[in-house]
Protein backbone atom coordinates (compact mmCIF):
# COMPACT_ATOMS: atom_id res chain seq x y z
CA UNK A 1 0.00 0.00 0.00
CA UNK A 2 1.25 3.51 -0.82
CA UNK A 3 0.48 6.94 0.60
CA UNK A 4 0.57 8.67 -2.80
CA UNK A 5 -0.97 7.87 -6.16
CA UNK A 6 1.70 8.52 -8.78
CA UNK A 7 4.70 10.15 -7.11
CA UNK A 8 7.03 9.18 -4.31
CA UNK A 9 7.24 11.27 -1.16
CA UNK A 10 10.56 12.78 -2.27
CA UNK A 11 9.01 14.03 -5.52
CA UNK A 12 6.42 16.20 -3.73
CA UNK A 13 7.40 19.63 -2.31
CA UNK A 14 7.61 19.91 1.47
CA UNK A 15 5.72 22.55 3.49
CA UNK A 16 8.03 24.53 5.77
CA UNK A 17 7.56 24.55 9.53
CA UNK A 18 6.97 28.05 10.90
CA UNK A 19 6.63 27.42 14.65
CA UNK A 20 5.87 24.80 17.26
CA UNK A 21 3.80 25.47 20.37
CA UNK A 22 3.92 23.27 23.47
CA UNK A 23 2.08 23.44 26.78
CA UNK A 24 4.45 24.63 29.48
CA UNK A 25 3.81 21.54 31.63
CA UNK A 26 4.07 18.93 28.90
CA UNK A 27 6.99 16.51 28.87
CA UNK A 28 8.16 13.57 26.85
CA UNK A 29 5.84 11.20 28.74
CA UNK A 30 2.49 12.07 27.15
CA UNK A 31 -0.62 11.57 29.22
CA UNK A 32 -4.24 11.61 27.99
CA UNK A 33 -5.79 15.05 28.29
CA UNK A 34 -2.97 17.02 26.66
CA UNK A 35 -4.18 16.56 23.07
CA UNK A 36 -4.89 19.61 20.92
CA UNK A 37 -8.36 18.64 19.75
CA UNK A 38 -8.93 21.95 18.02
CA UNK A 39 -7.20 25.22 17.15
CA UNK A 40 -8.53 28.40 15.55
CA UNK A 41 -7.55 31.80 14.21
CA UNK A 42 -9.64 34.87 15.07
CA UNK A 43 -11.56 36.16 12.01
CA UNK A 44 -9.45 39.35 12.03
CA UNK A 45 -6.30 37.24 12.56
CA UNK A 46 -5.43 39.07 15.75
CA UNK A 47 -5.21 35.89 17.83
CA UNK A 48 -4.46 32.20 17.46
CA UNK A 49 -6.16 29.93 20.00
CA UNK A 50 -5.49 26.30 20.83
CA UNK A 51 -6.70 23.79 23.38
CA UNK A 52 -3.26 23.27 24.84
CA UNK A 53 -3.95 20.47 27.25
CA UNK A 54 -6.35 19.35 29.92
CA UNK A 55 -8.66 22.27 30.82
CA UNK A 56 -6.64 25.07 29.24
CA UNK A 57 -7.02 27.24 26.15
CA UNK A 58 -4.21 29.62 25.23
CA UNK A 59 -4.75 32.71 23.07
CA UNK A 60 -1.55 33.83 21.38
CA UNK A 61 -1.39 37.27 19.70
CA UNK A 62 -0.85 36.91 15.97
CA UNK A 63 0.94 39.35 13.65
CA UNK A 64 -1.43 39.32 10.69
CA UNK A 65 0.79 41.70 8.71
CA UNK A 66 3.67 39.23 8.71
CA UNK A 67 1.78 35.96 9.29
CA UNK A 68 3.71 34.97 12.39
CA UNK A 69 3.42 34.92 16.15
CA UNK A 70 3.54 38.39 17.69
CA UNK A 71 6.14 37.06 20.14
CA UNK A 72 8.39 36.37 17.13
CA UNK A 73 7.81 39.73 15.41
CA UNK A 74 5.73 42.38 17.18
CA UNK A 75 5.87 45.15 14.56
CA UNK A 76 3.50 45.75 11.67
CA UNK A 77 4.46 46.71 8.11
CA UNK A 78 5.04 50.31 9.20
CA UNK A 79 7.18 49.39 12.21
CA UNK A 80 4.53 50.08 14.86
CA UNK A 81 4.49 47.88 17.95
CA UNK A 82 1.69 45.34 18.31
CA UNK A 83 0.27 44.13 21.62
CA UNK A 84 1.48 40.65 22.43
CA UNK A 85 -0.12 39.61 25.69
CA UNK A 86 -0.80 35.88 25.82
CA UNK A 87 -4.03 34.87 27.59
CA UNK A 88 -4.53 31.44 29.19
CA UNK A 89 -8.08 30.42 30.12
CA UNK A 90 -8.90 27.62 32.53
CA UNK A 91 -12.20 26.25 31.23
CA UNK A 92 -12.81 23.93 34.18
CA UNK A 93 -13.14 20.76 32.06
CA UNK A 94 -11.33 19.05 29.20
CA UNK A 95 -11.68 21.23 26.08
CA UNK A 96 -12.82 19.37 22.97
CA UNK A 97 -13.73 22.27 20.68
CA UNK A 98 -13.15 26.01 20.30
CA UNK A 99 -14.45 28.73 17.99
CA UNK A 100 -14.13 32.49 17.62
CA UNK A 101 -17.24 34.59 17.19
CA UNK A 102 -17.43 38.19 16.08
CA UNK A 103 -20.05 40.91 16.04
CA UNK A 104 -18.59 41.90 12.67
CA UNK A 105 -19.53 39.93 9.57
CA UNK A 106 -16.82 38.39 7.45
CA UNK A 107 -17.99 40.72 4.67
CA UNK A 108 -19.28 43.87 6.35
CA UNK A 109 -20.00 45.49 9.70
CA UNK A 110 -23.38 44.96 11.26
CA UNK A 111 -25.62 47.96 11.81
CA UNK A 112 -25.69 47.35 15.57
CA UNK A 113 -23.24 45.95 18.07
CA UNK A 114 -24.04 42.76 19.96
CA UNK A 115 -25.11 43.07 23.59
CA UNK A 116 -26.20 40.92 26.50
CA UNK A 117 -28.81 41.74 29.08
CA UNK A 118 -26.69 40.45 31.97
CA UNK A 119 -23.25 40.32 30.38
CA UNK A 120 -21.10 42.50 28.16
CA UNK A 121 -17.88 42.20 26.19
CA UNK A 122 -15.19 44.79 25.80
CA UNK A 123 -14.24 43.79 22.26
CA UNK A 124 -15.92 42.49 19.13
CA UNK A 125 -14.42 39.01 19.61
CA UNK A 126 -15.65 36.20 21.84
CA UNK A 127 -14.40 32.63 22.22
CA UNK A 128 -16.63 29.59 22.68
CA UNK A 129 -15.28 26.40 24.23
CA UNK A 130 -17.06 23.05 23.99
CA UNK A 131 -16.26 20.92 27.01
CA UNK A 132 -16.05 17.27 27.94
CA UNK A 133 -18.73 17.76 30.62
CA UNK A 134 -21.35 18.75 28.03
CA UNK A 135 -21.21 22.49 28.72
CA UNK A 136 -20.22 25.41 26.50
CA UNK A 137 -18.46 28.40 27.97
CA UNK A 138 -18.01 31.73 26.18
CA UNK A 139 -15.20 34.13 27.02
CA UNK A 140 -14.28 37.79 26.56
CA UNK A 141 -11.10 37.73 24.47
CA UNK A 142 -9.56 40.92 25.85
CA UNK A 143 -9.95 39.98 29.53
CA UNK A 144 -10.22 36.20 29.56
CA UNK A 145 -13.35 36.51 31.71
CA UNK A 146 -16.33 34.17 31.45
CA UNK A 147 -19.36 35.67 29.68
CA UNK A 148 -21.94 32.86 29.55
CA UNK A 149 -22.20 29.17 30.34
CA UNK A 150 -24.55 27.28 28.03
CA UNK A 151 -26.04 24.08 29.42
CA UNK A 152 -28.29 21.69 27.53
CA UNK A 153 -26.04 18.99 26.03
CA UNK A 154 -25.83 15.76 28.02
CA UNK A 155 -22.45 14.54 26.78
CA UNK A 156 -19.18 15.76 25.24
CA UNK A 157 -19.52 18.86 23.05
CA UNK A 158 -17.46 17.71 20.07
CA UNK A 159 -17.64 20.84 17.93
CA UNK A 160 -18.81 24.46 18.07
CA UNK A 161 -19.09 26.96 15.21
CA UNK A 162 -20.33 30.54 15.02
CA UNK A 163 -22.38 31.72 12.06
CA UNK A 164 -19.99 33.83 9.93
CA UNK A 165 -22.43 36.74 9.49
CA UNK A 166 -21.70 38.46 12.80
CA UNK A 167 -24.99 37.41 14.40
CA UNK A 168 -23.26 35.50 17.24
CA UNK A 169 -25.51 32.50 16.60
CA UNK A 170 -23.60 29.41 17.72
CA UNK A 171 -24.09 25.86 16.45
CA UNK A 172 -22.90 22.99 18.63
CA UNK A 173 -22.83 19.22 18.18
CA UNK A 174 -22.34 16.50 20.75
CA UNK A 175 -21.93 12.86 21.48
CA UNK A 176 -25.45 13.08 22.91
CA UNK A 177 -26.62 12.83 19.23
CA UNK A 178 -27.95 16.42 19.04
CA UNK A 179 -27.25 19.60 17.10
CA UNK A 180 -28.14 22.78 18.96
CA UNK A 181 -28.38 26.46 18.05
CA UNK A 182 -27.75 29.24 20.58
CA UNK A 183 -28.27 33.00 20.32
CA UNK A 184 -25.65 34.88 22.29
CA UNK A 185 -27.51 38.12 21.61
CA UNK A 186 -30.38 36.68 23.64
CA UNK A 187 -28.47 35.72 26.79
CA UNK A 188 -27.33 32.51 25.10
CA UNK A 189 -30.86 31.22 24.50
CA UNK A 190 -30.90 27.71 22.99
CA UNK A 191 -33.60 28.06 20.35
CA UNK A 192 -33.41 24.90 18.23
CA UNK A 193 -32.38 21.25 18.57
CA UNK A 194 -31.91 18.84 15.66
CA UNK A 195 -31.05 15.15 15.52
CA UNK A 196 -29.03 13.61 12.72
CA UNK A 197 -29.43 9.84 13.00
CA UNK A 198 -29.53 9.01 16.71
CA UNK A 199 -25.76 8.60 16.92
CA UNK A 200 -22.88 10.81 18.07
CA UNK A 201 -22.23 13.93 16.00
CA UNK A 202 -18.56 14.82 15.47
CA UNK A 203 -18.43 18.08 13.54
CA UNK A 204 -20.44 20.86 11.91
CA UNK A 205 -19.76 23.68 9.45
CA UNK A 206 -21.71 26.76 8.41
CA UNK A 207 -21.78 27.78 4.79
CA UNK A 208 -20.24 31.27 4.44
CA UNK A 209 -23.63 32.64 3.32
CA UNK A 210 -25.09 31.08 6.55
CA UNK A 211 -27.95 29.48 4.60
CA UNK A 212 -26.92 25.92 5.37
CA UNK A 213 -25.16 23.86 8.04
CA UNK A 214 -23.39 20.57 7.34
CA UNK A 215 -23.06 17.95 10.09
CA UNK A 216 -21.16 14.65 10.22
CA UNK A 217 -20.75 11.94 12.81
CA UNK A 218 -20.88 8.26 13.64
CA UNK A 219 -22.17 7.19 10.22
CA UNK A 220 -21.17 7.25 6.57
CA UNK A 221 -23.51 10.08 5.55
CA UNK A 222 -23.25 13.88 5.50
CA UNK A 223 -26.32 15.86 6.56
CA UNK A 224 -26.96 19.33 5.10
CA UNK A 225 -29.58 21.47 6.83
CA UNK A 226 -31.47 24.57 5.72
CA UNK A 227 -30.81 27.05 8.55
CA UNK A 228 -33.92 29.14 7.89
CA UNK A 229 -36.37 26.22 8.18
CA UNK A 230 -34.13 23.70 10.00
CA UNK A 231 -35.28 21.07 7.52
CA UNK A 232 -32.86 18.49 6.12
CA UNK A 233 -31.88 19.70 2.67
CA UNK A 234 -29.50 16.94 1.51
CA UNK A 235 -28.06 13.66 2.74
CA UNK A 236 -24.80 12.86 1.01
CA UNK A 237 -23.76 9.20 0.80
CA UNK A 238 -20.58 7.56 -0.44
CA UNK A 239 -18.12 7.28 2.44
CA UNK A 240 -17.39 3.80 3.86
CA UNK A 241 -16.56 4.73 7.47
CA UNK A 242 -17.45 7.46 9.98
CA UNK A 243 -17.26 10.99 8.55
CA UNK A 244 -15.34 13.13 11.05
CA UNK A 245 -14.87 16.58 9.50
CA UNK A 246 -16.60 18.88 7.03
CA UNK A 247 -16.15 22.37 5.63
CA UNK A 248 -17.67 24.61 2.95
CA UNK A 249 -15.74 26.40 0.25
CA UNK A 250 -15.61 30.22 0.61
CA UNK A 251 -18.33 30.66 -2.05
CA UNK A 252 -20.66 28.15 -0.31
CA UNK A 253 -20.80 26.04 -3.49
CA UNK A 254 -18.71 23.06 -2.37
CA UNK A 255 -18.54 20.84 0.71
CA UNK A 256 -15.41 18.90 1.61
CA UNK A 257 -15.75 15.90 3.95
CA UNK A 258 -13.09 13.75 5.61
CA UNK A 259 -13.59 10.15 6.70
CA UNK A 260 -11.79 7.35 8.45
CA UNK A 261 -12.17 5.43 5.17
CA UNK A 262 -8.90 7.18 4.03
CA UNK A 263 -10.73 9.51 1.61
CA UNK A 264 -11.82 13.13 1.32
CA UNK A 265 -14.80 13.85 -0.93
CA UNK A 266 -15.71 17.12 -2.61
CA UNK A 267 -19.45 17.62 -3.14
CA UNK A 268 -21.69 20.08 -4.97
CA UNK A 269 -23.42 21.82 -2.05
CA UNK A 270 -26.57 22.51 -4.08
CA UNK A 271 -27.17 19.17 -5.82
CA UNK A 272 -25.30 16.79 -3.52
CA UNK A 273 -23.31 15.33 -6.41
CA UNK A 274 -19.88 13.93 -5.56
CA UNK A 275 -17.31 15.79 -7.65
CA UNK A 276 -13.86 14.69 -6.49
CA UNK A 277 -12.17 12.09 -4.32
CA UNK A 278 -8.78 12.73 -2.70
CA UNK A 279 -7.31 9.40 -1.64
CA UNK A 280 -4.76 8.93 1.13
CA UNK A 281 -4.02 5.25 0.57
CA UNK A 282 -3.33 3.41 -2.72
CA UNK A 283 -4.72 1.27 -4.06
CA UNK A 284 -7.97 2.43 -2.41
CA UNK A 285 -8.93 0.00 0.36
CA UNK A 286 -11.78 -2.41 -0.17
CA UNK A 287 -14.93 -2.02 1.92
CA UNK A 288 -13.94 -4.36 4.75
CA UNK A 289 -10.58 -2.59 5.07
CA UNK A 290 -11.87 0.97 4.56
CA UNK A 291 -14.49 0.55 7.28
CA UNK A 292 -12.03 -0.66 9.89
CA UNK A 293 -8.61 0.18 11.30
CA UNK A 294 -6.59 0.91 8.18
CA UNK A 295 -3.78 3.09 9.58
CA UNK A 296 -4.73 6.08 7.41
CA UNK A 297 -7.82 7.57 9.02
CA UNK A 298 -8.24 11.15 7.81
CA UNK A 299 -8.68 13.25 10.96
CA UNK A 300 -9.25 16.80 9.73
CA UNK A 301 -9.44 19.15 6.78
CA UNK A 302 -9.51 22.87 6.00
CA UNK A 303 -10.43 24.86 2.89
CA UNK A 304 -8.00 27.60 1.88
CA UNK A 305 -9.60 31.08 2.03
CA UNK A 306 -9.31 31.47 -1.75
CA UNK A 307 -11.07 28.13 -2.28
CA UNK A 308 -8.33 26.66 -4.48
CA UNK A 309 -6.83 24.17 -2.03
CA UNK A 310 -7.79 21.76 0.74
CA UNK A 311 -5.44 20.76 3.54
CA UNK A 312 -5.83 17.37 5.25
CA UNK A 313 -4.19 15.47 8.10
CA UNK A 314 -4.21 11.69 8.49
CA UNK A 315 -2.94 8.91 10.72
CA UNK A 316 -0.20 7.95 8.26
CA UNK A 317 1.83 10.92 9.55
CA UNK A 318 1.35 13.25 6.60
CA UNK A 319 -0.24 16.66 6.18
CA UNK A 320 -1.32 17.14 2.57
CA UNK A 321 -2.20 20.20 0.46
CA UNK A 322 -4.52 19.40 -2.45
CA UNK A 323 -5.38 21.39 -5.58
CA UNK A 324 -9.17 20.96 -5.79
CA UNK A 325 -8.97 20.65 -9.59
CA UNK A 326 -6.73 17.57 -9.45
CA UNK A 327 -7.32 14.16 -7.89
CA UNK A 328 -3.72 13.10 -8.42
CA UNK A 329 -1.09 13.67 -5.75
CA UNK A 330 -1.04 16.58 -3.30
CA UNK A 331 0.89 19.69 -4.32
CA UNK A 332 2.79 19.74 -1.01
CA UNK A 333 3.15 17.59 2.10
CA UNK A 334 4.54 17.82 5.60
CA UNK A 335 5.36 15.24 8.26
CA UNK A 336 3.12 15.47 11.32
CA UNK A 337 2.74 12.57 13.70
CA UNK A 338 -0.57 11.97 15.49
CA UNK A 339 -2.39 14.95 13.98
CA UNK A 340 -5.94 15.61 15.17
CA UNK A 341 -7.05 18.75 13.32
CA UNK A 342 -5.94 21.51 10.97
CA UNK A 343 -7.07 25.04 10.08
CA UNK A 344 -5.99 27.75 7.65
CA UNK A 345 -5.37 31.28 8.81
CA UNK A 346 -7.87 33.80 7.32
CA UNK A 347 -5.11 35.13 5.05
CA UNK A 348 -4.37 31.61 3.80
CA UNK A 349 -0.64 31.98 4.43
CA UNK A 350 -0.40 29.60 7.37
CA UNK A 351 -1.89 26.24 8.30
CA UNK A 352 -2.10 25.27 11.98
CA UNK A 353 -2.09 21.56 12.80
CA UNK A 354 -3.19 20.29 16.19
CA UNK A 355 -1.46 17.20 17.59
CA UNK A 356 -0.37 16.33 21.05
CA UNK A 357 1.46 19.62 20.49
CA UNK A 358 0.69 22.32 17.88
CA UNK A 359 2.61 23.06 14.67
CA UNK A 360 2.25 26.11 12.42
CA UNK A 361 3.23 25.53 8.79
CA UNK A 362 3.99 28.15 6.15
CA UNK A 363 1.80 27.69 3.07
TrEMBL record:
<dbReference type="InterPro" id="IPR020472">
    <property type="entry name" value="WD40_PAC1"/>
</dbReference>
<keyword id="KW-0853">WD repeat</keyword>
<dbReference type="InterPro" id="IPR036322">
    <property type="entry name" value="WD40_repeat_dom_sf"/>
</dbReference>
<feature type="repeat" description="WD">
    <location>
        <begin position="194"/>
        <end position="229"/>
    </location>
</feature>
<keyword id="KW-0833">Ubl conjugation pathway</keyword>
<dbReference type="InterPro" id="IPR001680">
    <property type="entry name" value="WD40_rpt"/>
</dbReference>
<feature type="repeat" description="WD">
    <location>
        <begin position="298"/>
        <end position="324"/>
    </location>
</feature>
<feature type="repeat" description="WD">
    <location>
        <begin position="150"/>
        <end position="192"/>
    </location>
</feature>
<dbReference type="InterPro" id="IPR015943">
    <property type="entry name" value="WD40/YVTN_repeat-like_dom_sf"/>
</dbReference>
<feature type="repeat" description="WD">
    <location>
        <begin position="236"/>
        <end position="277"/>
    </location>
</feature>
<protein>
    <submittedName>
        <fullName>WD repeat and SOCS box-containing protein 1-like isoform X2</fullName>
    </submittedName>
</protein>
<dbReference type="InterPro" id="IPR019775">
    <property type="entry name" value="WD40_repeat_CS"/>
</dbReference>
<keyword id="KW-0677">Repeat</keyword>
<dbReference type="Pfam" id="PF00400">
    <property type="entry name" value="WD40"/>
</dbReference>
<dbReference type="InterPro" id="IPR051983">
    <property type="entry name" value="WSB_SOCS-box_domain"/>
</dbReference>
